[in-house]
Amino acid sequence: MVKSLKLIFVANLLVLLWLPQVHANYLRITGVTPNQTAGTVTFGLQWQNSWRTNYPPFNWDAAWVFVKFRECGVDPNTEWTHGIINLGASTLPATLESTTRTGTAGIDPDNLGVMLRRTSVGKFNDASAHSITLRVTNMLPAGTDMDIKVFGIEMVFIPEGAFFVGDGVNTSTYGNFFPAQRIDTPSGQTLTSSTSSSLPNVTIPATFPNGYGAFYIMKYEISHGQYAEFLNTLPSSAENPRNVRNTGGTSFRHALMDNGTAPTKFYSNYPDRALNYLGWADLLAYLDWAALRPYTELEYEKACRGAMPPVPGEYSWGNTTIVEGLTYSNTVPAENGSETLLEPTSNCNYINNNFVGGVGASGPTRVGIFARNSLATTRTLSGATYYGVLDMTGNLWEYVVLATVNGIADFNGALGDGYINPTTGHHNVVGWPDPTVALVNYNSRSGIRGGSWGDSDLSQLSTSNRYYSRFGYNIRENSVGGRGAR
After folding, report:
1. What residues pair up with 182 in beta bridges, in sequence order?
2. Contacts of 252 (CB under 8 A, 6+ apart)
3. What percent of the residues of the chain are helix, what percent strand, and what percent coil, each to the nearest 5?
4. For the whole model, what pTM was predicted?
5. CA–CA separation, 449 vs 469, rounded Å?
6. Which of 8, 12, 70, 209 is the most buried (most CB within 10 A)?
7. Phi and psi (nearest 5°) for 73?
């Protein structure tokens, strides 16, 4: 008997058109049905308010879809197999097409998933699911009982092109900031550090993702629901080192639970809430498992600012207007994924001492909560970046790969392979930072950007602030989460 499992990744998504139009929506995967004789899996993908533009910023949203499976009844230490996709033998609806990580039609050479975007230009609101059949070349043969899951993560395409890093603000709270300077080549460019910096200038090598090249980035921070499903497909030996509940408990709106019954040992009653207490090692493992990668602090600024000139002290929506959200709408049950914050011009979760309504006091909100169903919505009102990425300012600090540590930029931008070390729970990608390096020696290669729900120093929330991107950072804290790229 085949056990076919449905997985919903990230509810309450949004859309951005230019001039920006931001609306709440969701990505849903349903009706997962494998055919082991044919080596295929068929499922429905419902995707409301997705979009694609043919005018600035010439981008779109997309769904990163991948497959994992495991034989039933095996030792729980057995890894799930990551599906290898044959796009040519798959069947996509005419309304969707697959793209590579650079945005061209097709599939990346690793064949570890499909990045689906709209075939046509426009905004789309699907009342019913699209039927998709993927050919999985390494699927278990007919007659073998298996569990199978199809995952979907919504992404945003960031086109190739020049951009500014740094906004030119020189204040004591900025630490070792980058003076405003333009990145206008894929490689070989020297970044100038501030004159007060203890860090030297750095020449970015050709292999380091400096933001000029095209890439995809997750539209939202990793949610409780996403991380729970990650843990539910790990071999049991890797669960404990990646179980962030061991650190977070139930404090600061952390809602990951680990007392369920397999195959859903891990779950959350608030799956859309951004996941805090995420450590550097946890993030890298999740991204390796999902065949994504960490993104760099230069890509962070590109995803926020886009092709626009820098504004001193700007937030990810391009100006210095910031309004706190504190009052939850009434939903039954509370925080069911459709909740909003009632302050009409609120665009950020910061300085949060206590929410009114909702479940829990201080901590992260659900992802994309500031997306609004209004044609008048702007980047400022929705807290959206130039390209339509959400929550890049506030809610949770996000891990980034540092552009300079002791004058070195050594991350190669390799993609995850769908597997982690089954014993240690660490990533296994050559060329990624070592997640075991201690904070104090400044070589973990990780910093954090964007600020969080707990920050009262608003300069730390600004796009170009490097206060915590001056040195290694790899601690599980109530204000830190993350997202990935491809």
Report:
1. 164
2. 276, 360, 362, 363, 364, 478, 479
3. 10, 25, 60
4. 0.93
5. 7
6. 209
7. 80, 10
